[in-house]
Structure formats: C-alpha cells, structure tokens
C-alpha cells in the first residue's frame, strides 16, 4: 500500500490533529488517506486507503501536512485541498545562510516587514498565502502567483530595498491583469440573449 513519511515540528502536531481530531479527520476524509501521527517525534506517516486508486491524493495530503507544519493555519493549508492548481513552495533559509541564526532572523524580519506589511503586500499582489516559521518561508498559491512571490522573497533575501520589491510586485500584478484581459479579448463580456 503506497505511503509517504514527513516530519513536522512537534509544536505543530496539535494544530495538525485539531480540536477533537477534526483537522486530521478532514484531511483523511477528503483525500482518502490515513494519517499516523507520532506526537513525540513529529513523524507523520500518510497511507493511501485501500479503496483509493489515486496516488496524487497522497502527495496532496503530504503538502497539507507540511503546510500546517510550516506554520499555516489549517484553513489556509486547506486551500491546497480546494484548488488542485495551487502548490506549496518551501524556502529553507538554512540552505542560504547555513546555521547563521542572526542572518536568518534579519531576513525573516525583512520578509515580514513592520507590522506584517511586507508579507501582506506580497500576499495581496500575488494572491498567495505566506508563512514565515522557524527557518523557512513557505508559499501557498497558484503556480504563477507563487513564482512571483518567490521572486519577491528572493529579492528581499538578496538585500533589495522594500520599495524596489513593491515596484516589482506592482509591475507583475499589472502584467498578470493585462494577460487575463487579453484572454477575454474578442469574447462578449455579457452572454448573448437567445
């Protein structure tokens, strides 16, 4: 029987299980999987139920478990359940800064911004959710929005000024809206009456 293993921080196990096991049960019922959670180690085993013939559900469940483990609320993580086109992107700051905790802390502060302003601007501009947790920055969103959010976060990591990042996001948002309008070009905006 297909299964996947993931590890999440122990302090996030309670969030994964949820009040009276509701969050865990919702994942299991919606994706036809079974979660085995070791609250002592943070290990989560995801098993595909025998009556399921869709291994994709296993990967979707893994992403939701990882999203909750990386600081997203279950409600935000369930966006991965509701929209098949949405993806989870995790940036591990240790891969960039090694174990230099002061650099990681500084960059996390730049990404969040004063009173959460920078994170909020990135989220609104790209229609994504962003979680800054531990040594990671995670993104949930559509492929294009996630790519742009990742690029903006990379700019902040490299030391770009916030104003530069905001202009980049504004330009990308404008390009996306223009592309969406072009898709509608030549089509009537109001359905024709018969």
Mean pLDDT: 92
Order of helices and strands: EHHEEHHHEHHHEEHH
Strand arrangement within the widest β-sheet reads 1-3-2
The strand count comes to 6
Total number of helical segments? 10
Percent range of helical residues: 40-55%
Q: What is the CATH domain class of the largest domain?
A: Alpha Beta
Whole-angstrom Rg: 19 Å
Biggest beta sheet summary: 3 strands, antiparallel
What is the count of structural domains?
2
Uncertain regions: pLDDT < 50 for 5+ in a row? none
The 3D shape can be described as: globular
Please tell me the CATH architecture of the largest domain by its name.
Answer: 2-Layer Sandwich
> Into which percentage range does the β-strand content fall?
15-25%
The separation of the N and C termini measures: 54 Å
What structural class results from the helix and strand content?
alpha+beta
Explain what the structure shows.
The structure is a single chain. This protein has two domains: about 5-80, Ribosomal Protein S8, Chain: A, domain 1, CATH 3.30.1370.10; about 85-185, Ribosomal Protein S8, Chain: A, domain 1 (2-Layer Sandwich). Helices cover about 50% and strands about 20% of the residues. It has ten helices and six strands. It has helices at about 15, 20-30, 55-70, 75, 80, 95, 100-110, 115-125, 145-155, 160-185, and strands at about 5, 35-40, 45-50, 85-90, 130-135, 135-140. The strands form two sheets. A three-stranded antiparallel β-sheet has the order 1-3-2. Strand 5 (about 130-135) and strand 6 (about 135-140) form a beta hairpin. Helix 8 (about 115-125) packs antiparallel against helix 9 and helix 8 (about 115-125) runs parallel beside helix 10 (about 160-185). The chain is globular. It starts with a strand and ends in a 10-residue tail after the last helix.
